[in-house]
Every structure is written in C-alpha cells, then in structure tokens.
Amino acid sequence: MTATVAPPASAVAAVKSKVRRGWTEHGLLFVAPFLLIYTIFLIWPTLLGFKMSMSSVNVAGTNDHFIGFANYAEAFADPRMWRSLWNTLVFTVLSTIPLVLLGLALALLAHHLRFMQWLWRLSFFGPFLLPSAVVSILWLQMIYPPEYGLINGTLGIDIVWLGDPSMAMWSVVLTTVWWTVGFNFLLYLAALQSIPQHLYEAASIDGADAWDKLRSITLPLLRRTTALIVVLQLVASLKVFDQIYLMTGGGPEDATRSIIEYAYDIGFTGYRTGYASAVSYILFVIIVIVSLVQLRLFRKREEAAS
Q: How does pLDDT run across 40-61, given as a tens digit for each residue?
C-alpha cells in the first residue's frame, strides 16, 4: 500500500492565500457599482455638507469663507434652535410609542381575524401609501377645520386643532400615527406569520390561554422585530418635516417647528446655508447616538434573556 504524502504546509497556505485573493478581487468587482453610487450620492454629499457647515457660504454659493466651528457655537447659543430641537424630541416621544404599540395591536388583530383578512390588511396599510401632501390636505380640509371638520362635527366640540399652541403638536402626531402606522403593522404582521404554529399548539396542550401565549411566545419572538421598528421609528420621527411644514408651517408660535424645518428656513429663507448645515449635523449626531444607544439596550436585553 502506498502512503499518501501530505503537501507541505507552505504550499497549502499559498493556495489558500491565492483563493482568498481571487475571491476578494471578484467580490470587489461585483460591489464596485454599488460602492461608486454610494460614494457619489452619500459619502461625498456628507463630506461636502460638513465642509459647508464650517463656512459662511450662502444659498447662492458665494461668501464661502472658512470659519471653523463658529456656526456650531452660534447654534448652541441659539434659543430657536433649542426650541426646535425640543419640539422634535416631543414629537418623537409622542409618536413613537403609539406607532409601535398600535402597529403591534393591528398586526395581532389582522393575523387572527379569519374573515376578509385582505380587507383588514389593506385598510391598515393603505394610508401609508398616500403622499404626505395628500394626507396633509385631507386632514387640513376635512378633519381639523373648527367649523365643519369631521372631529368637531361628530363629537359636537369646538377645538382649534392646528391654531392652538397647546393642541397643534398633538394634532400633527395624530395625523402621523394614522398615516404611518401601516409600515410598522406590515413588519409586525410578517414577523407574526413566521412564528411556528406548533409552538402555540404545544402551549394549548399545556393549558395556556391567549394571554399566556402572547406573553410567553409571541412577544419574546417579536423582540428583534420590535428593536428594528423602534430604531426605524425613532430615526423617522427625529427627521419629521413634511406634515409639519404642510399643516402648520412650524406654528402657531413655533409650537410645532421641527429642527429640520428650522434648518430649512435658515438655509432657504435666511440664505445661510453654512449655518443650516451646522444645525443639520447636530441633528445627525443626535440620530446616530440615539440609534446606537437603542441598539445597545436591545442587545443587552437579548443577552439577559438568553
């Protein structure tokens, strides 16, 4: 019998290195188009925006002088910037909680209803497909008018929903929840459909009721989906602009002005593009910090649960 001679370790390492290098070269070739587009439309604008935030450039592109962190110093001393940031945080808290809880409730309802499921799913998800302009006009012209609006007329009350500083933010939040809850509903519904049915059957054999199944099976298995939805919702709420700009214009008395709308007003109405860029990058840093903290918290909870 002839003994098999193993190749030298150096030869094996050389072959593995060559294969790895070939995979790397082919991989870079395949991702090159994406990297090019990513660089042109995301990385380069990000770097250019940061450069603008450290200059005195205006909307016309003139007066472009490097001033360092002067725009950031001005922003931190600007009370209107802090008021806009506070409004954004208030909107984020008021909208994120019901959007997550209501999205889960609607998904559970649509998942367990056996009668005309397609109608429930279409009804819950349909508003999310509407453009922001259509939603804003709909609520401005039909829901919120004090004299003939649907809410005041149905309930027999007289509330100035968008003209009262104490009610304006709640009104925008209500519109936003109705409009965007369909996205969270769809994510939760897809996650519910992926839960193995035999888990519920085994729980039923053990005598578990509906609440026990929800608490011990459904919610734990939806933990990753909830983490994703919370992060996406926080980012979306911190970037709120469309519905506020169209419905209230930041008023009344700056009660609903978000930080993005403030940056928009500074850049395109006040013509201070450099200062508007600095305000935008302050929001960018806040979004990154909030997202990282939220992901870290969910990761710790998963580790503790496992």
A: 998 999 999 999 999 998 887 7
